[in-house]
Amino acid sequence: MDSFVTPGSMEAISSVYLTSAGKRDGDTETDTSREMKTHFRVCRFIMETGVKLGMRSVPVATACVLYHRFFQCVSVSLYEPYLVAMSCIYLAGKVEEQHLRTRDIINVCHRYFHHSSDPLSCDSEFWDLRDSVVQCELLVLRQLNFHVSFQHPHKYLLHYLLSVKSLVNRHAWSRTPVAETSWALLRDCYHGTMCVRHAPQHIAIATLYLALHSYGVELPVGQREWWQVLCEDVTKEHIDAIISDLLHLYDMEAKWT
Amino acid sequence: MDKDLLRQTLSYHGQSLFAHLKCEQSENPDFKAIEPDLSKASYQRNDGGEDKALVEQFIARKADILFAQSWKSNAPVEYVLEDEAEEPYAIMPPLEQFMEVSFEERRNLLYRDMERGDIVIGRINSIRDFGFFVTLICMGGGLERDIEDLELTALCPLRDVPSNGNHDDPLSYYQMNDLIRAGVKDIDRYHEKITISLQPSSLATNLVSQKLGVLSKDDLPLHYSRSLRVANDNTETYERVLEGTLGYSNPLNVEYLLGKIGISDTQPPSLMRGLQSKHFLEEDFATTIRKKQSASWALKCVRIGVDHFKSGRYVEAMNEYNKALEIDTNNVEALVARGALYANKGSLLKAITDFELALESCPTHRNAKKYLCQTLVERGGQLEEEEKLVTAEGFYRKALALDDSFPDAKEALRKIELLIQKSLKLREEMAAREAEKAKNVETSAEKLRKILKEEKRMKRKRKRSSSSSTSSSSSSDRSSSSHRKSKKKKRKHRRSSRGGKRQQRVSSRGNWSAADDEEEWYPAPPNTSASFLDPKSSRYRSFDVPNRTEEHSQHYSKHRSQTHSQHSLPSVSTNAPDNRGRFEDDPFDISPLRAECSKGKGICDKTGDGEVNGREMEASRGRKKSQECHFGPQEIPRSSEKDKNSRTSSTSSEHSSKSSRNDLPSQSRISTYRRSDSGRYGITERDKEEENRGIRRSDGGDNRSSPYTSRNGKSSAGGSQKKELPSNLLDLFSQIAQFEKEKCKPQK
């Protein structure tokens, strides 16, 4: 379905960006890993754009999930991933009630690909880009059967943080940045598909677990583990699996950017 | 790097982590600095396992971020007691309870973590004479622990129980099993003794708002009541409780909790190297790009607009400028261009606003400054012609302040300063002269008054049941009262002189009418809206020149018609002969004002004064004419009203109709003057108002007016004329002389 592929600068630049990167890594890469690399890069693009647009964590997460779910159904060679990403950002803003203007999205994305360039003037290129974003948005909606509302780990993580906080000494808590670390880990996990493969509560618990573990915080022991209490159906294996996925993402970053 | 934190981590993980750290952070100078301290301690050797190794590697790699001092959100978030009824997020029972932490453990933890200033809630279990004992059931204010079954007892000594005002034993207020909220005063961990207090001073600063003392069951904290529910029901899990709360469903709970915990969502933390906040440049952000883009789009429109302007297509140019300003409000170029267009069209004030706005955003814009100077000078010129010398001067000064070297401004400022000085001198002279004449004229005024008194007595015989306004005052009053009256008028004028507003005039009018009751020859119509007590009106009088001599008015009209088409003086000047008759009443009405003016209220007053004097001269001439003048003008203005459409003519005709009725015409005149000065705005409304009033007065069979007119009709010319003369004779002769001077002045 090539009809909506964007004319103009964006497609040209981004395809160059992708193929040249692919060539750089050599032919030994399999298709899947190449795809994973693309997805990683595009998700990085989404997260960067999210920060520049002032998006909150939850809409950015929604955008990433929309993107991952979309490409679970279709092949990446058929659609321009960066365009899909832009449309996912736009759609996520609507879903999570943080409405973004297409003008801003286009401005930021254009500058992402053309560093230090002047903003686009109000000409046909601009309107074409805008049309593409809007059309692609409809495409994404249809591909996902209009199921665009997701439960995210964020609110679970925050409540868990409060509950765990009451278990420890207040001074110890204030000097240990468990909250910041777990929040950072949670945001970073959207670079990969783990965010759609695991339940939100599990992801929340795993990130909290890793944060506490990193700083060596010792929690009181009762009949039941604190993580078991917070979510009945989570097991240590789940937690370990999620943690390993997460760590893998950091390795990917080292490899691919 | 946070040394203590690292030490804590290392002791938890062991030596292997230390090895990883050394390897991964070998280039980190911060780490190198503390490495020697860390290596002093020996950490136990853990048998890692592969998973552990990966985690340790991760920690080691990210150590520079994880242990950075700036990583912690430094703002210590104070515990804010939420309004539990709102429940912005889910308030959960203590985790200890779910975890089923052992009795001992919980007790130890509590003693470890409880501090002075915390809030506890308990039940009174015994009251003694030295205080009462409380069994703690839960903590309030942030430390959520499951302590009820620990059965800890705290003592609240007598001195910490607040007295309840009526000198009873304060303990008598409390009973067994009362629920108490108290502050922790002291903890003896060794002996496991807790002392509590009901004094607010015992609380920590962030908890001071909490009310201490007896509680009802409803006031118990939510986490406690929920924990009771969980204790009673085995099937309640954390998750179920969470999903059952209202706060869980709040869509804004994430935002709220982030604020509560102290994490920023606009500069979010990340452990990815590429997403560290230092890599984000301000100019890549959406808002910055949008601003730049709006400015460039607006500039495009401005360029097109300037093209239109140069080709004379002003409407299209204005449209383009407005479009540009819609895209980018306060765009400097668009404002300057639009200002120039306004100035060309003649809307000087709008132009000035635009230029000033432009200069606010960009104070060094050359064109804006230049145009603004020019426009200010032009506006000053306009004002000067309108005789608003002070305001004009202000404008010239402003122009000079902007640009010292602007020659026109300097020139104009110099000229106007001279003018102002001259008019000041003139006023001083007039004042001096009037003071003299006041003494001379009095005697003749007294004579006149006597004649008038007799006349009035005759009239009263004819009409006993006549209007209330003609009150019989003693003859003795007249002579002195006229004198008093002028003084009162002066006083009232002074009071109301500054107000150019109707309210002030109303009040002065009120005073006026009160005073008027004493005087019979001047029934003050209470419902006149305009007061001639406004000294500014003298300025306005200069616009309407009905009372000038032909040549004077013509001169003025020439002068005026050049600048103000609205004032269509030629038409007015033809009314001059009529007006002369009309102004028989004026001296009467004007004089107090003049007297005020002569006190030097304002420069404008003085310039106006000259005209006033001139008018009065006319009036005096008119007086010498026969009575018929009175009615004559009545007819002529009517026809002139029909003929002329200009505002001034209508106002002058209005006043002619009014004056013929001897309602205070100067009042209306003044209001009309004001109207013409206030210029282009809202004149028509006021005009209509005045006209209506005038018509009402003219039509309405006022007791006041009818007896007056009938009186006019009946009394001899001399009599009625004399009535109007009274205290104004004072100034009469001075006016003549001054008027002559005035004639000379504009011709200079």
TrEMBL record, chain A:
It comes from the Eukaryota. Keywords: Cyclin. Residues 44-142, 155-248 form the Cyclin-like domain. One of its GO terms (molecular function) is cyclin-dependent protein serine/threonine kinase regulator activity. This is Cyclin-Q. It holds the Pfam family Cyclin_N. GO terms for biological process: regulation of transcription by RNA polymerase II. The keyword Glycoprotein does not apply. Belongs to the cyclin family. Cyclin-like FAM58 subfamily. The keyword Zinc does not apply. May be an activating cyclin for the cyclin-associated kinase CDK10.
From TrEMBL, chain B:
Transmembrane segments: none annotated. Residues 454-729 are annotated as: Disordered. GO terms for molecular function: nucleic acid binding. TPR repeats lie at residues 298-331, 332-365. Keywords: TPR repeat. It holds the Pfam family TPR_11. This is S1 motif domain-containing protein. The lineage of its organism: Eukaryota, Metazoa, Chordata, Craniata, Vertebrata.
